[in-house]
Each structure stands twice: as C-alpha cells, then as structure tokens.
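anyone else get weird line breaks when pasting these?? whatever heres mine. first is seq + tokens for prot A
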Amino acid sequence: MRGRDAFAIIILASVLIYSANAQYWFQFGATGDQVTYHNTGAAVTIQTVTQPYLENGSMGFWTGENLANGAFIQVGYVIENQSGNYPSYCNQYNCTSTDYLNKGNAEWFYEYFLPNSNSGTFMGALGPDGSAGPDGKLNRYSFYYSNGMWHFLLNGNQIGTVDLGTGSSGNNAPVAFGEMANSTDANTRIMPVTFSNFSFYNPAGEIYPVPHGYSYIGYGVGSDKALQNPYGVSEVGSRINYFEAGSGLPQPNNGYQLWNFGYYLKIISAYGAKNSTAQFQAYSSQQISEPKYVYLGNATRAVFEGWSGTGAGSYSGPDNSTVIPISSNITENAEWQLQYLVNVSSSYGAATGTGWYDKGSLVDYAVDNATYYYNNAIRYVFQNWSNGNKNPSGSAYANYPFNIGATFIKEYYVNASSEYGNISGSGWYAYGTNATVSLSNYTVRRSNFSQTSFYAWSNGSSTPYLNFIVTRPVAINAVFKKQYLASFETADEYGNKIFPSKIYINGNGYAKSAFLFPDQTYNITGVYYDNMKIAISQPISIARNSTVFVNLPLYNVNATFTDLFGNPINATVHATFANGTSESMQANDGRVSFTDLPYGRVNLSATYDGITEYASASNGAQIRRIFVSIYDIEVLMAIVAISFIIYFISRSRLHRST
C-alpha cells in the first residue's frame, strides 16, 4: 500500500499486553481510483467474523487513507490474540483509560497518526469487549471531515473526533482492507470477511460509491517482506462493490480491477494463474489459459485436466488454452490433478518405480535382482528398502513425494578346501560378521606305524577350527603331512619301568603312543601317574616310527627308626604324599620304604611308646629318626648308677692303702 496506509493497526498491535515482537504486517483488500482523490472521508460496511483460533499477532478490518499533509486515519474492528487489559483511549500525550478484552472477540477501533509521524505511539480509541458484535453482524464504519475535525462513526453514531490539520486526502484514494498485524509468520488462517458499499465523500460532503475497485495484496510500512503474503481478495459473484478478503481467496496483481460495469469473467484455479475476477466489455472475446503443468516444488506438480464453465459462452473441455465470448457473467473452473514425484533408487543393479504419480495412486517398486555379483568372491545382497520393507519389491501409496532406496550389504566368500576330512563353514558372509571354519575326520591311517593327518591351514593356523571376522574374501586350504608312531617307555630315576596312564605332549594327552610329524620338535610336558599329573619338560622329535624314552622324576624314600643305642624301633608310621593320598603302616625291623614317589615328596609322622617324631623328604632323600624310649632312659640311669658305685669303690680302696 502506498504511503502511511500501510501502518494500519500496527501501532494498535504494539500496545497489546501480550503481543509478540513485530515482524510482518500483511494487508489485502480494495482501493479506490483517481476519481476518489481529494475526498473528505470514506465509509464501508464490514461483516464481523471473529477468529477464535488466533494465536499470533492481531487482526483487523477497516477503511482508511493518507491525508494531504501526511497524516493518516482509519476506522474498523480489531481482534486480539490474548485476553487482558488494553488502552481504550490514547492521544499523543498519554493513554487515559483501559478495558479488559477477551481473546478472539471483535471490538471497534479508530486510529490516527499525526502528520509525518512514525513514533509508533497508539493514538485513538478501542471499543469495549465484543463491541463489533457477533459473527455475521454488518456494521457501517465511516470517517469524514467537518468544521475542522475528522469524525469517526459506527453505524452512524459518532465514536470520536480528532484535528489532523487538514480537511482533504489530497492525491490519495481511500482503502478498505483486511490486515494480519504484528505477526511472526504467515500461518494464521483468516476466515474471509465480506466488505460492501465502499464509498467516499466529495468536498461538498456528498457520499458516493467507489466506482472502480482495485486489488491490493501487500505489506504495511516497516513490515518484513521475507514471507509471501498468503491472503487474498475477490469480488463476490457479479455484485458490484461487494468483495471479500481473507485466506483461500485469489491474489490478483496489485491494481487489478475488482469491479466495473460489464460482464465478469471469474477464473477459479488452485494453481497456474490462480483465482481471478475481471470485468470485460459485453460480447467481447477473451482467452482463458492455464499451463499444462504447474510445479509446486521439485517433487510436486499440478497437471491441468480441463475447464468446467458456467454461463452463456463458457467453455467446458480439456484444452488448456481457448477463446470464449463474454456473453454473460462467466465462471471457469480450472480442474487439476495433483501429482507427486516418487524416486526409487538402488546402489546396485536397477530399480523400477520412479516417476510422477497421481495423489493417492499406488506405486509399485522393485529391484531387478536381489543379488549383484561383483566377482566370484564379492557380492552385494539386498537387505531392505529405506521404508523398512525387507522384500525386493513392494507397493506404497503416493500421498506425498517420497524417495525410497534399496540397501545392499557387502558379502565375501569364504572358501575352505581340504584333500581329506570334512569341511564346514564355507560360504558367503556379510562384511564384519563372524565365520567359523572347521575340519573333521582329518586323519587317514596308512599302517600301524604311519598316518596322514592335518598339519596346518594355508594361512599358518595349526588348529582344525578357525574363527575369524570376515573383512575380505578368504581362500584357505588344509595342509596334510605324514605322521609316524612314537611309542613311549617311561622309567623312574633308578631305571625302573613306570606305566603312567597318560602322557602329555604339547598339552595334549596320549596313552602309550602317539602319531607325530617327523622333524618337528615336540615337548613332553608331563605324565599322569598315581592319580596326579607330574610336570616335566622333555623336547623330542622323530624321523620315523620310534620308541621314545622318558625319565620321570619318581624317587624311592627310605625311613629308619632306632633308639639311642641303634636298636631298630618298629614305630607306627603315617605318610602323606604329594598327590594328596596318605598311608599308615608298621615299621618292619625299624624300616619303611616308599617307591616311585612324584618328586620324592613325603611327610611322615612316626609314633612309638607315646612319642611322635616328624620328618619329610624329597627327591630320594633318606629319613632317619632316633627315639628316646623309657627303656633307654632306664638303661642310661642304670649305667650312671653303676658308674657311681664303681667310682666310690675305687675311692675307698685308695683311701685304705693310703
């Protein structure tokens, strides 16, 4: 809108207690033409339509204009988005009163700006709660100049006056607008509001209908213009000077003629040229035209399907462009089919289903092959579609544009082979998964003394069972070699043959023999004998079937028990051995013997005549323990006594001789 008209209810919105930061002021409605210049007022009838879901900004419907000296004037009704206390009257000095207004109600207001003032201060008056009446009520809002004052009227009743320093609009035409003010977005839906009998006052004070109405879709002064104004204006039917403004209405170019004498051609179109109404000379010819496609974005388009016309001379048919005679008021409806672009993709092979689809139609999509072989050892296997479908084909409704992609996983072939035995685990594995390859029945007996047996995998692993993470194709082969029989002869430290129940080679247990690979060093790590494992370390290797001699750390332990005079004592002996077993026995002629003890370790307790002696030995050591018995003590005491007697006799004889 030109000049100060664009301020409209900006200032009113800025003083509402709960208003948001101002950003957008969208204006939409009708303007007069040059015939209405130099007027002394304007009037319009406006339908009250409350907007109960208003959450953002404020909304107003009014008539107003710029004046010759730069002042601005307007009157109409406003709808607030929050309940609270609002100023009911303000001038350039202050606001003198407030009223409590409820959100969503409509109140009359008038507002003015002093000449060339952009102060942002609200000046005017705001009516009481609901003063614009209920939905559907028609009110006549007007302003005019008389006796040095501008007068504001509601339904012919004066609601206020102001002196603005001039009595003329100058080269400015009146406007009748709807406005979304102080909004942060363009999302608020405005139910269309009807305007009628848009009029102006001439300098003589006479009031006349505005003869030609022109469209205006734009912004208020200071408004952010980053968002497109979504609101429109349209003449209602074929009635002159009767139009509506709000959401869902046509958005003709500014200056488009809304009414004039003649026949009207109304175009109703959701896309393309969109809605429009124009007046043309009767019986003239006019072309109606729409594009075949209207792209609403990269993935949405409308396809023209035909015209559906009403009125004498109208056209109904599939041609998107045609000429019609204006023989009456005509309405032409452009019929469209909304289509969405569906993009079906696959990283491997080919995918079908990409294309434009009518809204709501069924889309069939698929990959041409669920498995794509890069070579004999690498392939890509279909896993799922991006919409979660795990089948190579599917269907979906085109209710919106969408992209759907086929996901493939990379697989590698694990190829394990062997000349002998049975292989398990060969096959395809997804990258990063675990593979287990095993070889069973991997020994082929050649004779009693030789066999062919698994030696190692070609990757160097010596165990028949492999477990690894697959990160590339794998080809491994089981290597077999000849083995010879190794027979074991075991002996203790004295050369006496010993017969353990098991022999351990490299940690594996064998009985009396084992097949071994020639020219390979093994380590005998122990034997199992007398209920315990005896650890040893004896490297061995063979070149053919052989007998292997193994010396075991088995020793004999002998224990002797005597008294002080060397006489044997047949004590009761309790022995505890290294394998955790124990044994009790009676010494024979003062002796006990233990043969082939592991490492010779034994703990003894020997009891005789109430006296217990303890001893231990290892690695073949001999045990000797002397018991001091009561008999020994008695003998010693007798010897001592005899010695004293002999001593005193000897002393007595010596005395006599002296």
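and prot B, same format (seq, then tokens)
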Amino acid sequence: MSPASIAEAFRRSAARVPGKTAIHFLGERYTFARLDALSDALAAALHRRGVRAGDRVILYAPHCPQWILGWLATQKLGAAAVPVTHFYGADDLRYIARDSGAETAICTDTNFGHLDRVLKETPLRQVVVTRVSDLLPAWKRGLGHLLDRFPSGKVRAGADVLSLPALLSEGGRPPPLTAGGSDTAEMLYTGGTTGHPKGVPISHAMLLASFAEQRRASLRVIPEGQEVVLQGSPLYHILGQVIGIAAVVAGETVILLPRNNLDAVFDHIRRYRATTILGTPTMYRMMLEHDRIDQYDLTCLRFAFSGGDALPAETARRWKERVGQPLYQGYGATETCGGVAVNHAGVEAPENTVGKVSAHQRILVADPETLEPVAPGQGGELLVSSEHMTRGYWNKPEETARCFVTVQGQLWYRTGDMVRQDAQGWIYFQDRSVDVIKHKGYRVAASKVDNVLQEHFAVVASCTIGVPDDSVGERIKSFVVVKADVKGVNAQDLIRWCKDRLAPYEVPQYVEFRDMLPKSKVGKVLRRELRSEEKRKAHIG
C-alpha cells in the first residue's frame, strides 16, 4: 500500500535501510536511523511548544543537514514547511511570515539577524536557531571555529529564541500523525508575475507523485536504492526537492555542500561516486568552462538533469562530449510541483526538447487569448492539470482567478509559457511569460523589480525585462523614465538602490534611461515590445 504522507514514506525507508547513509555533509555521514531519531526528537520538542498539524513553519537556512531535519520534523507533525531562500532579507521575510501566518521559524545563526528585525511585526512567536556546525563531531566543530571555517552570526538570548541542540537533547517522539493525502505538506513561495511572492500550497499526495515520477526518469540507468544525488539545486526550490529531498524520502543518498564551489562539486562527485546531479543550464555551463574539470573523474555520473531554464543545445552537446553521458532536460514549475515534462534516461530524444509529459500530469496547448486548443504541432500557451494539483495561491484570490482556470470542465494552471507538441508527444519550449525572468535558474518577477525602482524619488516609470544570455539564461535589464527636473541620477545609483531592497539574483544588471516607454491604447506598458527590441539588437550585433 502506498504511503499517505511524506512522514510515512520516510519512516518506511528508515526502517528498511537504517544503517545506510542518508546525507553526506562536510565529511560526515548521517544514517537513516540517526536522521529518523533526530527528526523525531525535534518534532516532539516543537509539539511541546505548540506546533500542531496545519501550522506553518518557516525554514530559513543554507544547505546543511539541519535543513532536512527541520523539514522532516515538520512533516512528522502534519505541519506545513515554508522553505525560503537564505538570500532573503528582512522585507521578504516580513511579508512571507505575515502572509503564511507562520508562528515558528528554523534558521541558522547567520540568518537570525534578519528574522529578529521583523519578529515583532509578524505572527512569529519562536525561532529555533542552529549553527551549520551543530551536528558535526566536537573535534571538527572546534577545529573549524579555530580556523574560522564556519561563518557565524550574533544571536540574542530570550524565551522566544530556542537552541536546536538543546531541543534535540530533550528526546522523545511526536504524537501519531493523522495528516496526509490532500493535506498541505509545504508551501513554496514563487516570484510569479506580481510584486510579492505567492504561496503555493503543495499536498502530500502531489509531492509523493512528483517524487516518484522524477525518479522513474533515471531508473533505466540507476536501479532503485542505488542513487547518490549531488544536490546542485537549492533545497527550497522545487527542482531541488523532487530530486534531492525525494532521494532521502525514498531511502537513497544525498550529498550536501554548504555552497556550490565547483572544485568542491567535482571532488564530491568523485569521492562519493555520485550517480545523479541536478542544476540549471548556467551551472552546467560553468562546470564545462572550469579550467580544472579535466583533473576530476566524473564517469560515475549516470543522470545529469537540467531544469529551471531552457537548456542551450551547445551546452548539452559539450556535456555529452566531456562526460560521456547525455544531459537530460525537463520542464516544470512550482505551481505544478516540478516536472510537467522530462527526458528519460535511455530514450533517444530530439534536440531541444524538454521531454514528454510526465505520467501524473495532463497538458493542454491553447491559444493564450481564447484558451481554445490549438491545432496539433502548433505553438500555444501550456496549461497543466493533475489529480492532486495545487488549486490556487495562498491568500491570493485575484492571482488564483488569473492563473487557475476551468476549461472544458477541468481545472488547469496557466504557465504563461509558449510551447508546441509534435506528433510523437515531444514538447518544445518556445517562449516564456514576459512577466517572469529566468536568471541563473531563479524566477524573478519583473514587476517586483519595477516596484522597487518606482519607489526611488527620481523614477517616474520603469519596465524590467529579461535579455537572453547563454551564460545565465537571461540578464535583468530595466528601462527607466526619470522626472524631468531631476539631474545627476545614473544607472549605478539605481542599481545600488535595488541591491539594498532585493535579493542578489533580482538586481538588474543594466539600466537604460528612456524619455518614454511603449504603451498600449489603454496605457499598459508593452513589456513584450521591449523584449523584441532587445532580441533584434542581439541579432543585428
């Protein structure tokens, strides 16, 4: 019988392979038995402090075993994890804490300062703090701190600030779990098309289905139980979850690095005989261009998966020439819980395809204006539906009505992306929504950047677009109109303004000043026209 919840699936794996390595991190191995016991202890401690089924718990930390530990503990309580990027500052944290209603957060000491700034302005009532080194042996912690190898942050004392090691020392087991199926397992925030991130509630059933379908893609080359995943995509990103977190839930192994230093990536692939790696096209391009790649043996890799952006054909060809294995591509979104289409290992695929539709998903290629299906082989907007699909955004009825539509009696999610499907079922990506920029695998809301720019005293109007760039997917460029009586404001001034208010990956690389922006008859800025203009420039150049 299939498990009804993430916690049940993980417990089954831990019982089946208790001594197997679940996580490699900084030279240490964490077995499934240890991870199960630690997540039980944390879940029990959180339950004693009021965390209940249905509550939201923010996870705000870089890659470390404690991230997975916190995620599993949340699942064992039937609460919903709310993973957020550790790049976020106080403004985004304030918004997400308020929007999600989370009362508990788990963070590292290096992130605590941002959370502490907003605690009194949010529903948050307690913060669990850990150092990245907390679960390492005492000698390694001491040596690391002596050599200043571990970053550290200031953490104040207080009844609302809890120490992760202290909570774990209490021991115990959580109460029996009743959540599962259609209950929310986690809520991922996505940039989407608006100025504020939108919460996407994802059920246990949808996560488990997505985990299973993504794993099927590599089964021909990696037998069940033998996968070793090098976590190249963030744990808070759906791509990182449907491959990396999925491996832990299924009883396989994941390799975590605090950050993706390429020499460390290559060394960990070789040392731990990684079979699987995941990342964005940008990451693979950087790996191929690294001047020491030839010093490492990467022949253990059997399934290299690219997601988060369109994969350039040249990058795919170079990877196969260098590594001897194909670079597999897929297509997905946070709202669809990852994979909508995927290329399966061992299946010869045409160039530039993102694969065939995953078994648990249904698609409709439709005219974006009428939502009528287009003729076979013609391009149109991709709509996605599934049995356990997300049915809308958290607390966003207007955005839900715009993006989740009923067509022919069926609920569909509108991706905003243009694709075509050929007679053999292969899907080809053609163009993305003009409102979303894919930069280094991140989804950047163009309107969010515009909102920040328009808060500047000198700016009258702005329009931000993505400019195609093979190295990073798209670069962020903002077109700006300033007040006629303002002098001396330059592009670097506006970029610095954005750096103080946006995550690093959201900051525009270019600012171009204009006397006016192209607009429709009803006054709407024509973002697509500016994108077309930039493409023409690139073609001429």
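btw re prot B: The radius of gyration is 23 Å. The chain has a mean pLDDT of 92.
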